[in-house]
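Appendix B, record 7
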Amino acid sequence: MQISVFVPEYGVIEAVTPPFRTFHTANEFLTTFGKKPIFEVEYVGLQEYVPANNGEYMIKTNRLLKEVTETDLLIIPPTFGDIAKGIEANAEAIPYFKKLHEKGSSLASLCVGAFLLAETGLLHGKKCSTHWAHVSEFKERYPDVQVEDGAIITEHDNIYSSGGASSLWNLILYLVEKFADRETAIMISKYFALDIGRDSQSQFAIFKGQRNHGDDDIQKVQDYIEKHYHNKISIATLANLINTGRRTFERKFKEATNNTPIDYIQRVRVEAAKKFFEASRKNVTEIMLDVGYTDTKAFRDLFKKITGLTPIEYRNKFARVAYEI
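Structure tokens (predicted):
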């Protein structure tokens, strides 16, 4: 099976090397199990030597992308720094991605490599994952793509995508299991000390309200919510802040922030709770009250829905101070 790892102009080396290294390691484990190695792995790019991490590294490709007339799987890592500049620097590659998929190749984007994949138009009306911090930017640039916010892996019509940062390893393991076997994927997860079962990046997400919409009225409401989240906040109060009716306000708020007012309040409160769990010794009930909730079950359910972890699980994983029960 031919695995072609595209080396984007100014790519992220920490995302370019993992798939190359992993599929080579899979061959080694297959041999250990008495099986034949099945992966032929190569680097491909727009030129023979491709700079990575803003020129800090240089990667030698095995073939130029234009020479690849067919491959079983093309992996598209993310670019480094400004995404728009990364897209521009790799614009020449986009038609090749599309042509290879039309010939039957599977495509897999890693992290914000999803932006390069989306440029092909192949994701139109389909689902996709990307880094949680770039979901709003992705939605704005590609409104016809269904972004799976928080998802680790998305698969649709031989097109795969992963969430942010270390989530790329989960997709790589998934692809090893899919094209080789689970035994090999498990051995690789142990070898590289990876969590093969993680299915959400929500626990790592930091909520930053969408503020580049240019609507001063909505920014005024956002400021109010972020200052008074610990108090009871009604939709009527928020609408009155900008002298508009409730329905008009809710519509404007959703258009500007991609969240309903209720969702926004909940996300702000949970973000505040996360910070308390990370840095304070307060118990769950105290933190619940501090962020504006009085129902323990409702708070726990909401916290887990947004972060993927219970409050106690989150504290145990991310607390910066020792917690004494």
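Remarks on this record: The longest strand covers residues 40-45. The domain at 216-318 is CATH 1.10.10.60 (Arc Repressor Mutant, subunit A).
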